[in-house]
Amino acid sequence: MALPRRAQTTLGLVCSIALGGMLGLLWWWRRHRGGHQPPVRYRRVRVALVGLGLVTIAVGTVGRLTVVVHPLASCSPPGTTVAVGRRNAVSDLALAEKAATWPETGIGLLYAEADGAKICSSSSSDFYVGVHAALFAFRSTNVGDIVLSPSYEDPQERKAVAAHEARHRPQWAVATIIGGPLAFPIAYTVDDFFFPGPRNHFERLAGLDAGGYSHEPTGPVLGPAQIAVLAVLGAGIAVALVRVRSRRASARTPVQESA
Fold first, then answer.
1. Is 162 found in the same domain as 79?
2. Are residues 94 and 115 in the same domain?
């Protein structure tokens, strides 16, 4: 049984915002302005992708709720976990960041728990920490409101790395609001492709020294892979512009003939 048209429109709006943030809202508005309902191509593929995205968000949301119902123990003193060095009370801005990154944090918590990482709550920053020496030995990784980290022997190194990773939470939050839960990973990957390692803008904003990065030039890396991607992207834009121009010309032709 098909849903009423108004219910379908509302459901589409909710899905667009949940998966695409403000950009999703803009996309939905452009496709439905003036009451116009455009034909949907590849309907089954779209429904499958939207369903997968909503299920992932739901799983992450439930995973994050379990921590609310059963709070984690506070991180123990240096020696087994990473403790973030901020001691200020949680601000309204931090609460907003937590809300914006809620599903992503839940996925991070479930991932760390499934792999046997020791998870605790840093009371000094109200930030979650998952420590696993084997899996995360290569580097620390921030997922929303949780840091997945190796075990550091040096207390000062632990403190610096955790403070660096904590600065990624606002980046996750802003990106999620603008473009949805996948916006930050996509933006980070694209940036890191052209600006790898310490050249990465997100890492520079979080602090290179604290993150264990060396200082390098800030310019992009334009190797064969980057040049190939730019060439393909340029060709794709050119083809898209030609198609748009062709469609506009085709739309004007009947009007001119009738005149």
1. yes
2. yes
- Amino acid identity for residue 153 in this structure: E
In a domain, 52, yes or no: yes
Give the DSSP per-residue string, 71-104. PPPBPPSTTSS------SPPPHHHHHHHHHTHHH
Put the strands of the sheet holding 141-143 in their side by side order.
Answer: 118-122, 127-131, 146-149, 141-143
Report yes or no on 211 lying in a domain.
no
Do the beta carbons of residue 59 and residue 107 sit within 8 Å?
A: yes
Position 83 confidence tier, pLDDT thresholds 50, 70, 90: very low
Cite the DSSP H helix spans in 33-73: 43-69
Range(s) of the domain holding residue 28:
5-66
pTM score:
0.81
**pLDDT, tens only, 200-216:** 999 898 888 777 787 77
* Measured CA distances, 69 to 54, 63, 66, 228 (Å): 22, 10, 5, 50
Cα→Cα distances 167→70, 127, 141, 164, Å: 26, 11, 12, 5
> Is 83 in the same domain as 37?
no
Whether 232 has a pLDDT exceeding 90, the answer reads: yes
